[in-house]
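User: Hey, quick favor. My workstation is busy. Could you predict this chain's structure for me?
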Amino acid sequence: MSIKSAKTSNLQTHILEKNTAPSYQTRAIVHDFNNLLTGLQMQLSTALLRLEPDSPARKDIEQALKTADYAAELIGELLNHPPKSKTSGFGVDLNQVIKEHVGMLQSLFKQYGITVVLDLCPNLPTAGISRLHISQVLMNLLINAVEAYEGSEGTIYIRTWLCEPFEKYERVKRPFSSRQIALEITDQAKGIENILLDHIFKPFFTTKPAGSGLGLTTCLNLVRAVGGTITVNSKPACGTTFTIFLPEAYPQSPFPTT
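Assistant: No problem, here it is.
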């Protein structure tokens, strides 16, 4: 790496850290929002208790409560920035988390006419990443896939599988020396132009009018933090595929699985 490139990289890192560390005012707003969210969770829980077991509204309220719980987890991470441990709650059933998030986003999929097709490998080993962090990655990639259709109907394909050691995969420079849990999210929208592919993971780079340019950067950082890999394959008018490879969470890990 040249001196100029190194300086540019260091500057981007400094700017990212400066802009992602919450200020006092931001923390105060987040704290107040957390209080409102707690009230919402209590109201949803009360509504569930009052509903008949066979009420048609029960499923929707249960889903709303799950979404509120997920939001509370994210708020908790903001209030405790930086996290006490990046491996808190390490080890996750990836297939289960995918099903939960597809359920949480069901109203969004329905609103935009999006069909989700799941091809999940049965008996998949536990993935070596925290539940909260893989949730952040999934949310970013799924919402990006919906937005890629720009309001048109379409299909999102989600696939998981187990990668055995030393198998070769396209766009992965070196074969993995240990088993990896793979996640693939594909859309068939307009795709990404080649000239943009080298920039999509860079902090603050965005093609969206109201985008922050931090969604894919966050995905990349969370995956790399646990020794994982994320790749992208896209062609104009053919769609986009994001593939994530995560290390297996070994049984001797001191962290509980979820």
